[in-house]
Here is the input.
Amino acid sequence: MIAQLLTLIRREFWEHRSIWVTPLAIGILVTLGVMAMLVFASGFAKELDLAIFGAQNLTGDNERRIGLILFFLGTSWIFLIALAFLIVFYTLDSLYTERKDKSILFWRSLPVTDAETVVSKLLTAVFVLPLIMCAGIFVTHLINLILTSIWVAAKGGAAGALIWGSVPIIDTWLFTLVVVISGAIWMSPFIGWFLLVSAWTKRMPLLVAFMPIIVVPLLEWIVFRTRFFASAVGERNDNLPIFRGMDVEDFFEDKEWMHSIQELRLLEFLDIGKFLTHPETWLGIIVCGLLTTAAIYVRRFRDES
Amino acid sequence: MTSLVTARGVSKHFGSVRAVDDVSFEIDRGRILGLIGPNGAGKTTLLKALLGLTDCEGDLSVLGLDPFRQRKKLMQNICFIADVAVLPRWIKVRQLLDYVEGVHPNFSRKSAETYLTQTQIRPEAKVRELSKGMVTQLHLCIIMAIDAKLLVLDEPTLGLDILFRKEFYANLLNDYFDEERTILVTTHQVEEIENLLTDIMFINDGKILLDSTMDALSDTYVEVMATGEDAQRARGLGPIAETEMFGKSVMLFEGVSREHLEGLGEIRIPSVADLFVAKIKEARK
Here is the structure.
């Protein structure tokens, strides 16, 4: 059972090379960007004597730590934006292409049920893609820390203390992992919807998937002057209930915490219990389950001839 | 029980169109059955019902299972090639073997690799890089490495050149078929496979026109080439079809004994193609 599921997920890696090419490409771009930044910053050697993160004249360890965290989170966001696009294109393609190229007849000639196939694609979208992207983020962080360390050491700085001594690696990584996975679960109703569109539509899955998300709130506003659909669907992305009493946007605008917190710990801002007990989390999972079930039925009952 | 497939009053409707119309038949173990019919006759729909790809009315049992409701279990003992173009074009040969090995309990990777060494197909090649004939070879190598009880082939050699077609059926017969295995094949090129078949079934407008063993066929159907008065006398015996060839009348008889026909002209066993054409014309009268 597990071995079969792993085979089905491996298949997704073969078909959708973007699953691993995207994090690899972004990792290379970020690394090149950091290298360019190091070269550029070294031109201001007097102001920043050991280039950005190794700079001894940054006012203190806490500031360096915050600088590094912001660098970590900043590069992570590039990956996460790519992850959102990747999930959309992957899910919309996953049950559509096999019908278009008729390979569905081959896949269905093997002892794998429609439910097993669709669930393997759901699990790939909700867990595997985010985990691969997280791995890409972590490897990119490590490579960039190593590059920066070499740069600082080459300039005569104590890289061990200046870079590694002030980096909250595990804290940032766990924070990223929890936010990414909970975010994927939170957005899973969309993933279920994309799977259903992918199994059902005869053409243009991207258009068919996004049309209702744009048109339904418009119609609702014109007809009823209400915004239930828009707030439930359109704004879901902004309301991930995992942050402890803070708004992500305010987090960076409110500078108070920079001075009041001696040692910043990102994990302290997370409340996994709140996420797991939030009714909308479970409502989302149920909606995702219903839409995925519908996708399974469409794949099973549709006659392609 | 030697019946592998039992169908009793099986029908399938698409709106008002009856693609398969109340058909009943049995397929025994160790047979090679040819399912022959014109385009739109209901062949593919019937095969899809047998493979559990579509639901149908009536009683249908394949290997003692309900194909639509027990499809996963059924697919462990059935293989099918729908037509030549269904292997995913992006996949590598090696990945295809990995995949089938991972999901099919009755697949022998070693056998598949042995069959592949007899072809020009490289393990690292992608399906899109292979010719149509090679894709079919690859599919056949995989199918032959699966220990299945029933193999269903729906136009397996469509669009292939004659060399690949001959090789395909030779491999199937020599390396795959045995008394425990059953093959169900549909094709337009019936003349190429009629020597392989043990049984034959004609289907038209969703109904079965003929269901017979090949041995019984030569006992039941006789063709006579006659001229002049002999032709007139033969016509009096009620042929089911008559054509002109080189100035002679070629008449096809059903259920008329050879003794009655001897002396009227040259007697021969009709080809399946001729019989098929006669039966279809008879049905459309």
